[in-house]
Amino acid sequence: xxxxxxxxxxxxxxxxxxxxxxxxxxxxxxxxxxxxxxxxxxxxxxxxxxxxxxxxxxxxxxxxxxxxxxxxxxxxxxxxxxxxxxxxxxxxxxxxxxxxxxxxxxxxxxxxxxxxxxxxxxxxxxxxxxxxxxxxxxxxxxxxxxxxxxxxxxxxxxxxxxxxxxxxxxxxxxxxxxxxxxxxxxxxxxxxxxxxxxxxxxxxxxxxxxxxxxxxxxxxxxxxxxxxxxxxxxxxxxxxxxxxxxxxxxxxxxxxxxxxxxxxxxxxxxxxxxxxxxxxxxxxxxxxxxxxxxxxxxxxxxxxxxxxxxxxxxxxxxxxxxxxxxxxxxxxxxxxxxxxxxxxxxxxxxxxxxxxxxxxxxxxxxxxxxxxxxxxxxxxxxxxxxxxxxxxxxxxxxxxxxxxxxxxxxxxxxxxxxxxxxxxxxxxxxxxxxxxxxxxxxxxxxxxxxxxxxxxxxxxxxxxxxxxxxxxxxxxxxxxxxxxxxxxxxxxxxxxxxxxxxxxxxxxxxxxxxxxxxxxxxxxxxxxxxxxxxxxxxxxxxxxxxxxxxxxxxxxxxxxxxxxxxxxxxxxxxxxxxxxxxxxxxxxxxxxxxxxxxxxxxxxxxxxxxxxxxxxxxxxxxxxxxxxxxxxxxxxxxxxxxxxxxxxxxxxxxxxxxxxxxxxxxxxxxxxxxxxxxxxxxxxxxxxxxxxxxxxxxxxxxxxxxxxxxxxxxxxxxxxxxxxxxxxxxxxxxxxxxxxxxxxxxxxxxxxxxxxxxxxxxxxxxxxxxxxxxxxxxxxxxxxxxxxxxxxxxxxxxxxxxxxxxxxxxxxxxxxxxxxxxxxxxxxxxxxxxxxxxxxxxxxxxxxxxxxxxxxxxxxxxxxxxxxxxxxxxxxxxxxxxxxxxxxxxxxxxxxxxxxxxxxxxxxxxxxxxxxxxxxxxxxxxxxxxxxxxxxxxxxxxxxxxxxxxxxxxxxxxx
Length: 959
Prior knowledge:
Largest sheet: 22 strands, antiparallel, barrel
Number of helices: 17
Number of strands: 52
Radius of gyration: 31 Å
């Protein structure tokens, strides 16, 4: 045993004795140290970075002679020959404007300089992250050209590029180390909840346009790439901590904090590992918009309106025609026929809603987010003789995200204790990669705020009792001489007797019972254990085929939906929902005429289980007329497509005032519900006191909601003319939507100015949208039913159903036949104006058009300002160890359209600023910053909380 230990000791000693150590410093041409410069052995991945004094130490098992490469953003790259062990290196890097020389990968799935990119691309470097005035680097993405944020919560921001996006931006994709961050259940990105720590970010790249030719479905209006640092080249322990205060008129002043740590180590040239942990906690922006949701017809309406339905008030969605209540009371024996006659004469023909609860009463308004990730990296042939084999790397990576936040869809949802995780195995080399990963999530204790309020209300008084008491009190008050307004007030007061008040033990007990119950009739809990299984691979033939750079690749994905029937139609009767999709692609790039022209052609074929296949081509040309390539013109045409999401296909979600029904062919029979029929005549038509409706009724036996609204407005005065307005729903089942995208651009440099100009024109067909419809509980829907046809006529029966409230509202998923066009223009520039002062500015214009008359019910949901202006002023070397950055942005007002609420969002001006101080000896930077310095609160999502101010102090060590 002792002999073995001695031999092992000698073995490891021999390894240590064989190591080569290089030490040195890196400075600029004014002899100022350059912190964070990258030092790498040419031809290998082993490397290190300089500290705050510009010093570095690089240890390798490679024996001299060899070459190291020294680089840093904003400086020219330099190489130094290493001829001996313990050699001292003193490198001076020449400063230059290198924005055009930054390397990007996403535009062509291959490394290329920004200037050569065939499409518009935006990039955030580590340097940009360090000087950002935003609270987090993800928030700072909003300062990029083409980016507009949709903020649902302080910890949930959704990126919008080129429009047609809500919080649930299913037209945008986000990849972190090659993994799609989309939620398996929701099919869209949850901000940075399971993204990457800012001290582990290596690069961020954004493609704002269609990218389906290389990245497949959902890379429809943009794609974000976040790449983390390799433990082979970025070693050591780094950490950050931020503490600050949020300030909002509704929520007051509240403390928040955010901290994280990163540890990475290359144990040998063959093996490295890293781990990250971050945690953020604070108080969310309170959502306190108490206007009625109907911001067109009920401007100024408040709780005195009998049918009030507040934006951030929940439970008031339960509404009924108060006159129809009399029939229910008669059938229940609560009133006599003689009293019924009085009730029917006195009660108005208007809808009345239950008294709701404010959002601030049914959520703790706390946001939290914890992220954990770790990875193991293995390079088995790192020290071999084969240049091809030494770059092969095997990676196992696991990511976990936990937290609380608010998501806004058809309702507002509190994602409480939400968990999402990803696990990846990947092998990659110089010219290829192959990876497979699984994404899974758990809804935790998440719940629907609307149904929480609805069912808390039902805990203290059933709907039928509440409306019955309301009707009785209204009649009594009216007969006593009260005006309609007084009678309504008295009726509500009587019906609300016994109401659980927020904060009382009765309310808390009812609330806890409801949010723990997944049954939509009695509870509000969201249940989810869905998964995505994904694999993709790519090979580049550039070292084999010399006449052009050719790539091939493909992907395969399985969706495994499991909401236990709470959101999807995966009830125990039918079981989980599984479906698959795959895609293959190829790309050819070729430079010609002394490399002045660069042609790129791509083509991809994708097939989803439920739809026909889609072919997505892309062609582009880059022209660089000057020898230094300081002027680069680009033109591209590409098509994109978006498969209907899992929600579009398989949702079966009761949201209170409507049911959302996906339109996969097999989904229409998967959803069914039993509904009561009111009035004796209605029960006669229905053949009983209740009916069973399925998705078939929603799609094939319903009227458009707009025609029902038009009918209701006229039926009292002219029932014949009103009936002529009714339109039977006539829609196809949902299919993929497509876009044809044309783009022209110029990226160049003139003296110290860097420019990027682009314009685009998009044509959308088969645009996926929602259609609101109303299904009668009996009868057969038909265009312009005849009110004089008699009781045996199925069309007449539907008129009776609508007039007596025997209806069910649905939201369908379908495509519009109209063609939608959008166009936009962007201009970005940056320069140094005096010494180390840098200024940057960008402008975006965006608009869309379509013929609304061809589809009156269609809502485009563009949700993008027509004008956006952004600017920044910074200096990393204001004076010794001090730097600062000020950024500002302005956007014009714009129309917000969503399934939750429609309305205008006002223009906003936001100014953020930070100052920072470096302590080189401690490898530490202290940053003090503030966002929204003007203090004017603004919103980016109608229904979400107004965004106030944030003040913070941050400490970063060894980034």
